[in-house]
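All the exercises in this workshop are built on plain-text protein records. Sequence and backbone structure share a record, each on its own labelled line. The question running through the whole workshop is how a given chain folds. The record below serves as our worked example for the rest of this section.
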Amino acid sequence: MSEFIRLLKYLRPNLLTFVLALVAMIFTAFFETAVLALIVPLTDQLTPDSAKNSVTLFNLQKYIPVDDWYRAWLVIAGLLMTFTVGKGIAEFFSSYLMAKIGQSAVLQLRQELYSHLLNQSANFFERHRTNYLVSRIVVSCSAIELSVSSNLRDILRESFMLVSFLSAGFYYNWRLMLGALILAPIIGLLTGKFSQALRKLADESFEGNKLLFDTAQETLSNHTIVKAYQ
């Protein structure tokens, strides 16, 4: 958690861009919920006897004719296309803006890291292999860029969708949603275990990349010796 808080300081120069990305994510969750809300009027058209009594999110039933089957399908199709296009546009801008923030953050981090390395003593460079330091600048910073542009984006966007879906669920049937929330602690526990396993794999991957850098650099730098033993 402390690493995540330290990472947030790199968002400050891009605060306005981050806010715009959040707005785009909120619209993404809104349009996603609106698409699911069309299931109710869509079902009503398959069971016309219940169409007059159905209520859905955002009062969509007011825009769908009850007595004209053809116009009702046209309206549902138009709403579905509108919501899908709106979701796609909002999702594109959220991804684009978060990618821009990630690139800006990794640029600032690499500049700070490179400046920090240049200020180290000669003893520091004797104790740490050059390839390890290079892998830190390249691989670790790229992982941080991925964390900002992709992982953080997914966490925020899925959180907004979760709130939106929960609100829709409570709107339709709050008793059923309360029963479903009983499973939330179990799902949270399993997700936490899975996240720990993924983090362990990421650490092992970094160590493997470091070894790859070391092997490649030593082999290429001493290619004459390598060829002599071939």
The CA atoms of residues 165 and 226 lie 61 Å apart. The chain has a mean pLDDT of 78. The chain is about 80% helix and 0% strand.
